[in-house]
Amino acid sequence: MNILFFDNFIDFIGPQAQKMGMTREEYVAYYLTESDKSDNSLGLMAFEAYQTYDDYNKGKKLFGSPEDLQADVLLSVKHLIPVRFDKAEGFVKSIEDQSQDKKGIKFEIKLTTGDIIHAYKIGSFRGSWEWYLNKKKLTKDQIVAIMLDKMYTPYEIWQMNFDSFDKYHMYSDDNRAYTAGKSHERDIARMYDGLSNNEKTKAYKYYVSKSQSPIDFVNFRGI
Fold this sequence. Notes:
Blueprint: H1 13-19, H2 24-32, H3 53-58, H4 66-78, H5 85-88, E1 92-97, E2 106-111, E3 116-121, E4 129-133, E5 136-138, H6 140-151, H7 154-164, H8 175-193, H9 197-210
Helix pairs in contact: 1-2, 7-8
């Protein structure tokens, strides 16, 4: 899967939807909207599977204090917020340690967007967390995708991908770079196709401002 990057990332939904043979809207509606069903489709772990502070204390490990775990979950959460990494912490409103001796290590993270993330420690290594966004269990990539669509307009997503496009991928000796470049090019064209008429006009003007020899609007396909 080709995930497009700009600082942390840009688009997860488009490539994943294409892989599943779905439109972006269909993918979001099916996989990423809040569900009223209390199912276990993503594999809810039993309480005994979560790490506890006792697990760290038994081995007298250098890592594993409440302060260590809070710092670790904050670092992990910052990677879920689609902004420059040095700006991500500004979207974290609060972090509360809700751990219980028998149920394991758990943190509640409230974001300035109004979203609430719960993180459960599932392994002794740094960064090993099970994630819930607004009480729904999701993968890290799914949370990134939801936050991306919430925080950016379709035009902004197109623009950031346009700016990060590798114009010289066709000259690479590495076939992986060439393939990734062609895939990114198709994804940017798809993003452009999904814009409104006004956004397409705005995108074309932006393209003209960046191009030394722009093509006309009728033939412009987003890249």
